Amino acid sequence: MQYLDTGNITRGIVESYQAIDPQSERLPSRARRKVTSGDIIYSSVRPIQKHYGLILSPAKNVLVSTGFTVIRANDRLVCPELLYLFLTQDSVTKTLQQIAEQSVSTYPSIKADDLGALQFPLPSSKEAAELQPALKDIFGAIDSNRQECKQLAKLRDALLPKLMSGEIDVSWIDLKQLNGHLVRLRTLVIVSRSTVYCMRAPFVG
């Protein structure tokens, strides 16, 4: 079982899941909400902190905190990617924060009804038909890149101690050729970051 608390995701990027063995451990009392691919999770406390994300290809047995509102798009009207982009606009965040500050709870918070009351223009059927495939491709590519980065980070953590101890011999590597490859890779990374920033599309997989 994997559990995601509100503080472990910011602007669509998951810091970590809490692994729980139900046979030997008790689930946190707030681990109650199930999510599926395409769900948007939005923390009800302090919207200005931007604890939200779009769930794509979640692992099995994932539960999220009851501190999240789970939003499921009506696919007949709007795709989840477009709805997520709307909900994560700075202007929407500011509006929700203003609502939260007027709440009578201990912490500035919003309710599911506050999210449900938001309004935004829907694209025409023709526009939606053009937008949706492109948005799904972009979000899917970002999700794949993040999953690959996680795997590369694990590989780095496994190999670095062996490299530092001399267990792995790298004396045969041509550094000039390697540096040339890194320059080209750096260029690609800058382009990718620019694309993500322009699309305003951070999310969680």
Automatic annotation (TrEMBL):
One GO MF term on file is: DNA binding
DNA-binding is among the record's keywords? yes
User: Which InterPro entries does this entry report, sorted A to Z?
Assistant: Restrct_endonuc_typeI_TRD_sf (IPR044946), Type-I_RS_S_subunit (IPR052021)
SUPFAM superfamilies associated with the record: DNA methylase specificity domain
Answer yes or no on keyword DNA-binding: yes
Q: Which domain of life is it from?
A: Bacteria
Q: Where are the transmembrane segments?
A: none
Q: Which GO terms describe its biological process?
A: DNA restriction-modification system
Q: What keywords were assigned to this record?
A: DNA-binding, Restriction system
Q: What is this protein called?
A: Uncharacterized protein
